[in-house]
Each structure stands twice: as structure tokens, then as C-alpha cells.
Design brief:
heterodimer; A: about 290 residues; eight-stranded mixed β-sheet; B: about 270 residues; alpha/beta; 10 helices; 8 strands; binds guanosine-5'-triphosphate; binds magnesium ion
Chain lengths: ~290, ~270
């Protein structure tokens, strides 16, 4: 763990007496290493180390009997602060239906999240819109999940245009008094101009209250490219981190927040319908620190 | 220029950072950079090329052919964590095999996830390939058993088995996978020719943990690196190959059945080191 590594590094240094600022640079190297190994993207790591540098080389650390532990506290506090940026709960529209659009890379967990959200919001009469008309069996997947939880699903024909499906679902939600409309979309690459334009068109057609970027927690350095491209082109209002029931350190969470400042609103923690919870910055911080 | 400058310490550091940014991992990046640091005769100019050559060299020893056993039913099992691209990769592999004149069928042994069987069946329809299935909730081992019998009865060359995505940290799911592997092993006539682990090119260092666990549980014989058509460099594949000696045997570069290419070390390294 980082604190063990810092103790080893400082143990060596302390034998020569009081720690100096130069000694603490060793500590900063360990922080950098720990964050990179946790998959935090390099530019975000650089930024982060600069941010904690001042406090890390401050008197409180230098005079401490356990400078390693002190530095870990500085790092942990800053991680919690960053990961908790704009931290908030799901927003609802002033007048129903609240529209939620899910976007993200292929396989990140959008369709499953759609069903999980619908389940959580069951008492608000949710409607699911299956707007992934690309992937074989995608509409069927959402239909089956909807059937499992007793939520209606508005779907489209394979290979069709998802925009009319989205509009039809919104119209149905309005005229039939659904409280929430959750729109699943096809996985897409941030660099696929055509598909990003399509996502933009879906968004413009349904004017969502929330647009969530669904991101796989095992994503590595590419989290920066993906997050900033989705942020720029689709202006999401928040993010959902998935597959946190695995053992990925999840540095992608910090990368995402570091480059977009988006709040992480939910954490998906398993394959079952109930496996969706609020995002806890402090838990994520300890996980990243390892 | 005969009198090249020695590479600066910063030049080595920059290469190391480039590798880390490509998900090669700190340990591997440092090892590669240190190898170069200890070398004589490199210049600022020749340094990047030397790194590329060293990486290609490390990738050159692997046998990347997808194995088929003559005269027997060859079986390829496709495994990996959730959402990496297994089912789509199977469609691509089957498409390739069929176009090479092989008689191939598929086993829909993901009996857990919603519409997993439907997804593979749709691919089978599109490609004109049989998909043996028993529906959601069936025992995956039973599906595989049936699929082997069917393939044998039809005199097929190759059976590709789709399995459910599973996190390697979930022991019951890894046990289930081992159970499916035992069903195949018990068939002394068919030949388990490949166990392919599909890794998402966007995966960070967790890819190593995935590969270790699947190798231990199911004796993975090769990797498929999927989604390399995105912005991720897929450096994790280099790290996995280096650490576990499991070779990348194919690369997924899109969502269509034709989007599968062989792993080309030079192209991969050139794109990675940019
Ligand atoms: N263990 C685990 N698996 C998850 C989680 N979220 C989703 N999955 C699984 O990840 C896989 C992909 O999920 P999907 O919901 O199909 O992902 P998607 O983003 O809709 O995929 P595309 O539509 O192809 O882009 C499935 O096997 C899901 O069951 C999670 O939090 N934990
Ligand atoms: N861009 C791109 N997308 C891919 C590639 N391979 C698969 N996909 C997409 O990734 C998503 C997930 O693919 P699947 O084949 O369902 O993945 P899986 O591993 O079978 O998922 P589970 O069975 O749920 O664990 C789908 O949207 C695929 O179209 C690839 O090489 N490139
Ligand atoms: Mg989906
Ligand atoms: Mg699958």
C-alpha cells in the first residue's frame, strides 16, 4: 500500500535526522507511482501531485513522527475532495417526465444501468426506451430486463434510426403520464463522428434532465481521451461508474473527474438489477490508494 | 549526421511516460526504458526507433496462429470479463473460419445474461452458421455437451463456444467456467484447440489480473485484443504477453463480422509509440 511504501522510503531518509523538503520529493514519487498503478491517467497524476506538493512538503509533515501517514492523509483528503466534486443525487425535472439519457463506449454497462435505474425509480412509473438499434439483440436485452422488473419498454426495429424511437418514447411518456423516461443508446467510440452526431441528435430531440456517461471502472489511461471527447461533444450532466464489484483500482474515476469535473452520481456494483448504489467518494479514494 | 547527440535523461523519461500512457504499465515501461538506458551507441535520433525495435523483438517469438487439429473436431472457448467483446469476437472468428472453407458451429453457453442467446443466434442467422442453444438458465456445460454432439454429427471442423462475461474475482463464476472446461475435456474425441481470453483495449492494469486468473482457471492459450479501433492503444496486451507469455492471436477493430485482423507486432508498436 502507499502508506507502507512511504514508510519504507521515509524510514531510510529519517535515519539521517529531520526530513527535508528534498526528502519529501521521494514521497511524491511514491504517490505518483501508486496513482499510475491505479490507472489514474498521467496528466491527471501530474496535476494531482502538484496540487498536494505544497501541503506534502509543509511543516506538519516534516515535523511529524509519522510523515508517511501524514502524507497519505493529505493525498486521501485531496482524492476525496476531487472525487466528491459537485457530488449530488439524481436530478428530477420540474415537471414529469424526468428524461435520463445514457451514453458511453461499447460494453460499459449502459443497458444494464438503464434497467437498474428504472428499478430504483419504480414508484415513479418509469418508461425504458431501447434506442440501440445497432447491436444484435440489444432491444431484446432491454425488453427482457424490463419484463423482469415490470417496466414498459419502447423499442425500435433493428438498424433503424434511433431518433424517431426516442421521440416516440418521449411522446408516450408525456401522454401516458410516466414519471421518468430512461433512454438506452448504442455503445459508440468517442472518435466516431457519425455516431457522436447521432447521440447529439438523440439528446437534442429529447432534451434530457440528465445525460450520464457510463464508464467502465477498469478503464485505463484512455479514460482521459474518452471522458473529454464525450464531455465536449455531448455535454453530459454526470457519470456512472460500472463493474466496481471487480478488483480494478478504478483510477479512471479520478481521470474522469480531473478532466471534466463531472459528478459521479451512481456506482454499479454487480450484474443483478439491485446492484446500483450512490457513489461514495471516500470509498473510491481508499480503493484508488490501495 | 555522424555525430549524434547522446539521448538526454529527459528523452528516456519521455519514452517511459509515453509507454505508461499507452497502458503498458509502470513496471514494463521502466523495464523497457532501463534496457535502453543501459545500451551503448544510442542517439537522441535513434532512440525512438530502438524502443520500437526492442518491443517488436519481444513480440516476435510468439506463435500467433489460431490452432486447428486435423481430423478431429476443434473446439475454441472464448472467455473474459463482462462486456469485453466475446460474443462479437466469436461472430468474427466464425465468419473468418467459414470464409476459409471450414465447417463451423457455435455454442451459446452464456445462459445467464439477458438476451445473450438471442444475440449469438442473430449472428448465426446473419452468417449462416448453426448456433446450438438451450436458452437462458440452462446449464452451460449441458449446452456445450449438446453442441459437441451436434458438431460431431454434422461432421464439422470447428466449434466455437461463447461463455458468460464473468469477473475473475467471483469464485463461483470461475468454478462454473472450470466445470464447462471439464465437460470438454471429458470428450476424448474432440480437441480443445484454443481458450481465447478477450481483453478490451481500453482496459488498464486490471487486464493483468484478469489474464492471470483466467489462465489459472482455464489455461488460456491466446488473447484477442478487442476495440483497438478506439483511441486506446491497448498497451495492456503487451504487458500481459510479457508477463504471462500468452500471445495475442487476433485484434478486433470494429463491430462488424469482418472487423477482425491478425495481430501485427510492427503496426501495433508503431501505433502505440506513435
Ligand atoms: N460484474 C458486473 N457486470 C456488469 C456491471 N454492469 C454491467 N455488467 C455486465 O457487463 C456486460 C455489458 O453490459 P451491457 O449493459 O450490455 O453494456 P452496454 O454498455 O449496454 O453495451 P453496448 O450496448 O454493447 O455498448 C454485461 O455482461 C453486464 O451484465 C457491473 O456493475 N458489474
Ligand atoms: N468498436 C468496437 N466495438 C466492439 C468490438 N468488439 C466488440 N465490440 C462491441 O462491444 C460491445 C460488447 O460486445 P459483446 O460481444 O456483447 O461483449 P461480450 O464480452 O460478449 O459481453 P458479455 O457477454 O455481456 O460479457 C458491443 O457493442 C460490440 O459491438 C471491437 O473490436 N470494436
Ligand atoms: Mg447496450
Ligand atoms: Mg457475450
Amino acid at each position: 500500500s502507499l502508506s507502507e511504501r512511504l514508510e519504507t522510503a521515509f524510514g531510510r531518509l529519517r535515519r539521517k535526522g529531520k526530513l527535508t523538503k528534498a526528502d519529501v520529493e521521494e514521497g511524491l514519487k511514491e504517490i505518483r507511482l501508486a496513482l499510475l498503478e491505479a490507472d489514474v491517467a498521467l496528466p491527471v497524476v501530474r496535476d494531482f501531485v502538484e496540487r498536494v506538493r505544497e501541503e506534502a512538503v509543509g511543516e506538519k509533515v516534516l515535523r511529524s513522527l509519522t510523515p508517511g501517514q501524514q502524507i497519505v492523509k493529505v493525498v486521501n483528503d485531496e482524492l476525496v475532495r476531487m472525487l466528491g466534486t459537485n457530488n449530488r443525487e439524481l436530478r428530477f425535472a420540474d415537471a414529469p417526465p424526468t428524461v435520463i439519457l445514457l451514453v458511453g463506449l461499447q460494453g460499459s454497462g449502459k443497458t444494464t444501468v438503464a434497467a437498474k435505474l428504472a428499478n430504483q425509480l419504480k414508484d415513479r412509473k418509469p418508461l425504458l426506451a431501447a434506442c440501440d438499434l445497432q447491436r444484435p439483440g440489444a432491444v431484446e436485452q432491454l425488453r427482457q430486463l424490463g419484463a423482469q422488473i415490470g417496466v414498459d419498454v419502447e423499442g425500435g426495429e433493428p438498424n433503424g434510426d434511433p431518433i424517431p424511437v426516442a421521440k416516440r418514447a418521449l411522446n408516450k411518456a408525456v401522454t401516458e403520464n410516466y414519471g421518468v423516461l430512461i433512454v438506452d443508446s448504442a455503445g459508440r467510440l468517442a472518435v466516431d463522428e457519425e455516431l457522436m452526431a447521432q447521440a447529439r441528435a438523440i439528446k437534442d430531440a429529447i432534451r434530457p434532465t440528465e445525460t450520464f456517461l457510463v464508464l467502465d471502472s477498469m478503464t485505463g489511461q484512455d479514460a482521459v481521451q474518452t471522458a473529454s471527447a464525450f464531455n465536449e461533444k455531448l455535454e453530459p450532466t454526470g457519470a456512472i461508474l460500472t463493474k466496481l464489484d471487480g478488483d480494478a483500482r478504478g483510477g479512471a474515476a479520478l481521470s474522469l473527474v480531473g478532466v471534466t469535473g463531472l459528478p459521479i452520481v451512481f456506482a454499479a456494483i454487480g450484474e443483478r438489477i439491485e446492484d446500483l448504489e450512490a457513489f461514495y467518494p471516500d470509498r473510491m479514494a481508499s480503493r484508488i490508494l490501495g | 549526421d555522424v555525430f549524434g547527440m547522446d539521448p538526454t535523461p529527459e528523452a528516456f523519461d519521455r519514452l517511459e511516460e509515453l509507454l505508461v500512457s499507452a497502458d503498458v504499465g509502470v513496471a514494463t515501461a521502466t523495464a523497457l526504458a532501463d534496457d535502453l538506458r543501459s545500451r551503448e551507441g544510442l542517439t537522441q535520433e535513434t532512440l525512438p526507433g530502438a524502443l520500437r525495435d526492442a518491443m517488436v523483438e519481444q513480440l516476435s517469438k510468439a506463435d500467433r496462429r489460431l490452432r486447428l487439429v486435423k481430423g478431429r473436431l476443434s473446439i475454441w472457448v472464448v472467455v473474459g470479463v463482462n462486456g469485453t467483446g466475446k460474443t462479437t469476437t466469436i461472430a468474427k472468428l466464425a465468419n473468418r473460419a467459414k470464409s476459409l472453407g471450414l465447417k463451423v458451429s457455435l455454442a451459446a453457453a452464456d445462459t445467464f445474461r439477458a438476451a445473450a442467446v438471442e444475440q449469438l443466434s442473430e449472428w448465426g442467422r446473419r452468417l449462416g452458421i448453426d448456433v446450438v442453444h438451450q436458452g437462458q438458465g440452462a446449464d452451460p456445460g449441458a449446452v456445450v455437451f449438446d453442441a459437441i454432439a451436434h458438431a460431431r454429427a454434422q461432421g464439422y471442423d470447428l466449434l466455437v463456444v461463447d461463455t458468460a462475461g464473468r469477473l475473475h474475482t467471483k469464485k463461483p463464476l470461475m468454478d462454473e467456467l472450470q466445470k464447462v472446461m471439464r465437460v470438454i475435456a471429458r470428450d476424448t474425441d474432440a480437441a480443445l484447440a484454443e481458450v481465447l481470453l478477450v481483453i478490451d483495449a481500453t482496459t488498464g492494469q486490471n487486464g493483468i489480473a484478469q489474464a492471470k486468473a483466467f489462465k489459472e482457471a482455464a489455461n488460456v492459450s491466446g488473447l484477442v485484443l478487442a476495440k483497438l479501433d478506439g483511441t486506446a492503444k491497448g498497451g495492456i496486451a503487451f504487458a500481459v504477453e510479457r508477463e504471462l507469455e500468452v500471445p495475442v492471436k487476433a485484434v478486433g477493430v470494429g463491430e462488424q463480422a469482418s472487423d477482425l485482423v491478425p495481430f501485427e507486432p510492427q503496426a501495433y508498436v508503431d501505433a502505440l509509440v506513435g
